[in-house]
Design goal:
- The structure is a single chain.
- With 155 residues, the protein is of the alpha/beta class.
- The chain has helices at 27-43, 56-63, 81-88, 105-115, and strands at residues 2-7, 49-52, 70-71, 97-101, 128-133, 142-148.
- Strands 3-2-4-1-5-6 form a six-stranded mixed β-sheet.
């Protein structure tokens, strides 16, 4: 199974009387999302399933990919790393799954996959981490296929 973790792009600071879920992307964030979305779209198989947090900033990030996606409430800010893996059906899913979500959870998922512990690893805004597991029954068959940052994508 392939699992891609994509952190939302740069978002506005929360305004007064604004919930965290209502924060939108900044102009810079929109550019980041477009660049990373183009790169991901060129790499992902057509059968890839895209699961997105219900937050406005993650929806806007996912829209830059230009593919159909499904909103998954278990991916909201503050989700547990186990919720992310469960939503993706890791490692049993036969399809590639792209998760668009938040820190610190995505960094914790990355650490969990690589070390077995949900450590607080930092994942930059708009970056994507691509994990593969060759054999669903063998944790040692997990490897990191790619890490890409929006500022490294060639325009």
């Amino acid at each position: 199974m392939d699992l891609i973790l994509w952190r939302h792009a740069e978002a506005e600071d929360p305004g007064p009387n604004q919930s965290d879920l209502e924060r939108a992307l900044t102009g810079k964030g929109q550019k980041q999302a477009r660049r990373m979305g183009q790169w991901l779209d060129a790499q992902l198989p057509d059968s890839c399933k895209v699961l997105v947090s219900p937050a406005i900033r993650t929806l806007q990030t996912a829209e830059a990919l230009g593919r159909r996606y499904r909103i998954h409430n278990d991916l909201a800010p503050g989700a547990d790393p186990a919720d992310i893996l469960k939503a993706a059906n890791w490692p049993a899913n036969k399809d590639t799954v792209l998760i668009v979500g938040h820190q610190p959870t995505l960094g914790q998922v990355a650490a969990l996959l690589m070390t077995g512990e949900a450590l607080d690893w930092d994942m930059r805004k708009a970056s994507a981490w691509w994990f593969c597991q060759r054999d669903a029954g063998r944790a040692e068959s997990i490897y990191l296929k790619a890490v890409m940052s929006a500022d490294l994508v060639i325009k």
